[in-house]
Amino acid sequence: MNKDPYEVLGISREATDADIKKAYHKLVLKYHPDRNPGDKEAEEKFKDINNAFDILKDPQKRAAYDRFGNSAFAGGNGADAGFGGGNPFGNGAFHFNMGGDGMEDILREAMRGFGFGDFGGGHSHKQQKGRDLLDEVVIDLRDAYFGTTHTVKFSSNVKCEKCNGHGTFDGKPAEKCKTCNGSGYIHTRQGFFAMETPCPDCNGLGKKINKKCHECDGIGTTNKQRTLDVKIPAGIMDGSRLRMPGMGEAAPNGRTPGDFYLDVHIRPNNIFERIDNDLLIHKDVDFAILALGGEIEVQTIDDKSLTVKIQSGTQVGDKLRIRGHGMPNGRGNFGDLYIEIGITIPKHLSEKQKKALSEFAAVKTDKKSWF
To answer: For 111-130, what is the mean pLDDT?
Structure first.
């Protein structure tokens, strides 16, 4: 039977990422097999600790567990069963990403969890940045033309204002831990394997905080409601991703914060069709104007009215090009507006109109009749 990961780590359901990592490192150090040789109970607790951390360190897995419990991972479905349930935004669009953690970092963390050292040559542990945050928005084509601002409200860890993110009582950077030389881990060798365990003096932090900040308890971050305005530039393309460096989640103890990303999608417009930076509209024109020539009025996407000349003999399906009335390209230029010509067929004709069309159809010409 799977155990409650919160109970295993001895933390509350409101625990922050820093709380989770702190509890994990403390328990791993206590129940590590190297410190408890031959102790089966400690070995089982060590496995439970790693299983609990695997769930709670991943925001999506944690959200799935919070919503469905252990059933979220039953039947081989993994954490997919509950994605979206833990979304602090309530719109199903916001996601968390472990900022700075690629596949190599994930494997490294897993290796540490089972007692193995840092694979690939025993280099010092990379200081993890804060989590990246991702949101997505759907805007109208007109918003893409003029540019707009997307406002998102959410809660996340931010730098503690009391200690400026250092976790220290006086707000100054903590000294580097002398035991691990700032790496946060102790390296030892046992035969073929290089063992790496959290430093007992700094609990894997890499810095020695002698007196903690009372506001954040030495973590350097606090959880806070945030409002972020993301400017969407004019001319943005569908599927574009905007990046706001350093506006993601704060990292513990003054480390580099994550980034904020916004995926932008553009809703189809019922009048204008976008083709790269050009726009295409369909315009039905009277047969008489197509045959004899004349003028039509066309509305642009920025609500301007253009008078367009139609040459005599213009055919259905022809495209007229109006330069500079398409979408902005972000470099001060605009695409073009294309008008695809259609025809207006009147449903009700007067006797005079019917007679005129009949006379037109009866006229013999050297070319094939229009009809």
So the answer is: 48
Contact 274, 182 (CB under 8 A): no
Handedness of CA 278, 284, 289, 291 (dihedral sign): positive
| Alpha-carbon separation of residue 56 from 8, 18, 203 (angstroms) | 11, 11, 19
Cα separation, 19 vs 235, whole angstroms: 43
How far apart, in Å, do the first and last CA atoms of the chain sit?
81
User: Which residues fall within 8 angstroms of residue 267, CB to CB, at 6 or more apart?
Assistant: 138, 139, 140, 141
The encoded tokens of residue 193 equal 């394997």
pTM: 0.60
Candidates 139, 118, 115, 127; CA nearest to 28 is 115
Mean pLDDT of 6-34: 86
Assigned token pair, 52 = 């609990």
pLDDT score at 36:
79
Inform me whether the pLDDT recorded for 226 exceeds 90: yes
Structure tokens at 107: 């494997």
At residue 232, the pLDDT reads 96
The whole-number pLDDT of residue 280 equals 96
Q: Residue 161 is which amino acid?
A: E
**Residue 277 parent element (H or E):** none
What is the pLDDT averaged over residues 311-339? Answer: 94
pLDDT of residue 317: 94
Which residues have a Cβ under 8 Å from the Cβ of 286 and sit 6 or more positions away?
A: 343, 344
Are 199 and 207 in contact, with CB atoms under 8 Å apart? no
| Residue 326 scores a pLDDT above 90 | yes
Tell me how far CA of residue 213 lies from CA of 158, 167, 173, 222, 294, in angstroms: 15, 5, 12, 11, 78
What token pair was written down for 99? 């900022």
